[in-house]
Amino acid sequence: VFDTIGIDVGGTKILAGRVRPDGLIVARLQVRTERASGRGILTQIVRLVRELAAGDDDLHGVGVGLPGTIDQRRGVVVQAANLPMAEAPAREVLGRETGLHVVIENDANCAAVAEHRHGAAAGYRHSVMLTLGTGVGGGVVIDDRPFRGATGAGAELGHIVIDRNGPPCPGSCNGHGHLEAYCSGTAVTLAVEAHVAANPGGSVARSAHGDPADGHLALECAANGDPEAIALLVDAGNALGQGLVTLAHAFEPEVFVIGGGFGEAAQSWILEPARRVLRAEAMDPMSRIPVVPSQLGGDAGMIGAAELPRLG
Amino acid sequence: VFDTIGIDVGGTKILAGRVRPDGLIVARLQVRTERASGRGILTQIVRLVRELAAGDDDLHGVGVGLPGTIDQRRGVVVQAANLPMAEAPAREVLGRETGLHVVIENDANCAAVAEHRHGAAAGYRHSVMLTLGTGVGGGVVIDDRPFRGATGAGAELGHIVIDRNGPPCPGSCNGHGHLEAYCSGTAVTLAVEAHVAANPGGSVARSAHGDPADGHLALECAANGDPEAIALLVDAGNALGQGLVTLAHAFEPEVFVIGGGFGEAAQSWILEPARRVLRAEAMDPMSRIPVVPSQLGGDAGMIGAAELPRLG
Questions:
Q1: What's A14's DSSP letter?
Q2: Is B162 on the interface with A (CB under 8 A)?
Q3: What pLDDT sits at residue B237?
Q4: What is the pTM assigned to this prediction?
């Protein structure tokens, strides 16, 4: 029944919170990520933990969510797309310098754990979450526990193939036709750019008024009922549905949770097409798995990170 | 340390064996599947169990592998593509009529368990097996236990999407572009038919001598070094590789095992292309997961079924 500390390290900011067992955030801090070195980022985390711990001996531990691939056997960040943390021995350094039990985890796995314990997947034992943001992250909960694969690198659900003849992955991956190439914010920006170039007199192009033709523009136009913009987002939703077909057949979760910055902003247009594809193309009983929006928003990663030390 | 009985129910035959804890088959029986009714199949299984048990009270239980979707909560076959077993309450009927502890399971999951315990994946804790036959089946072992999804319907790995614009699934599924549409025996037969129709003067067409232009023909021609036939099988191997990229990113197993009748017959041509795609297109460390052929052949399903009662 002790509090824990959750840290969500992002490419631009680090969120830190002291979290109660019921998921309530009782104190929070935020700093800009010092992207110059992995060592600097670990120092920032230590400072945030000390400030939130404030001499309290009753803390149960620290969970740290990181945007990259984790090797749980060694407690090391294998690679992180946007941060200089490759091979950083995060668990050992943070444990030694905070004197607390430290767990590190992929950030999308943290979000999945948070939604599972306190959000959209509460009450289920098996859930799969996709975070649609700059990239597409994934988190899987099986029997109430985060699923990590053999070394902790699994559940990279943005990199499932949905079109073997599709475009290269916009993220740091050598593959092509991956889910991330269709329904990340980056992918939608690329689609909007291509659409505007091909339709310079179209409604989306005219709405830009010289601003960048990106995913934000599509969301703004769609909110105003622009059918061109809505069609672009529905395309992303259809692709998302194909990804859900794969994940339904592979994991058979009880629920799919769709979150992430882009996922939350676009949910009015992408969720229904995604559900339709799942209903039409997955086998029973998987075709009936509910697809719901995330509930914890930008705090999901931090709240989920704080759950990790409790999971043992 | 007691023996168990494993039953592998197929569309044409039922294999039954009495199996030692070390995987050795000490007695075996085989009958033709009485496809007229699900009740008839259950009666066949009961008869096989009684014969193999032969009054021995030291049996530890019975495992039954079935070619369909299982609901583990109810112990029921939800659907089986080629057998009239929909909604058959297999676990209850077999338990009552044999007086033994009965576990039912999808047949590809059984094969995966067998390879994990006694075959190509022995020594690993996390493995994914694909059985390439008439269709494509899948089995996943996580932490030394079969993974089944929320109700037992998961790990339908033949139905992961690899091309959202691809052809309809040849099996009983409403989807399209699934792995099964590229690297099952059925899919390769369709590819050979199309190839022969388009190239009536080609080497594969000429080798047919009026026999059906199917997967067997492609294997026979490839064994004789026919480059047309080899190219068709390499296509299937490349598609298999795309499926492995998805499964590597989703499950991060320590090893992939490729089996099934077609998979075993075609391994000389499909495994290397599949490995090449995985190496080139998956992220580290998943790109380095070994891809190995199955070792237990046609007995895998029966041996794996016999393991189930031991798993508790």
A1: E
A2: yes
A3: 98
A4: 0.96
